[in-house]
Amino acid sequence: MPSRYVEISVKGVAAEDGAPAPDRIISGDPKFRTWNVDEQPNGLYSGIWESTPGKWRIFYDEWEFCHILSGVSVITEDGGAKRTVSAGDSFVLQPGFSGTWEVVETTRKAYVIRV
């Protein structure tokens, strides 16, 4: 029987490179690296994500738990407050969230997404 314990780590996991869609970029030239560590058939994903500095529009259809491992970002909800997040901060972005994500210092987070 395979282990039911999954370590959330970049060790031995190939990174996927990416970036925001060009029409969503507000400033900078942000580049993403994502290590999808665990994917379940019921639409549950977990892993590590990292972005270089820049600012872009975000729209969430999914539910996402985030835990910031390093760096500094500013998340601003449309019509709401700016929230600065850094190492040790945890939060959930719920379906319907829209606003901007600005990476001030290269940011790395652990995530769990439920589609």
UniProtKB/TrEMBL annotation:
Domain (S)-ureidoglycine aminohydrolase cupin: 45-111
One of the Pfam families matching this protein, by short name: Cupin_3
PANTHER family documented for this protein: (S)-UREIDOGLYCINE AMINOHYDROLASE CUPIN DOMAIN-CONTAINING PROTEIN, CYTOPLASMIC PROTEIN-RELATED
Listed name of the protein: Cupin
Species annotation: Kumtagia ephedrae
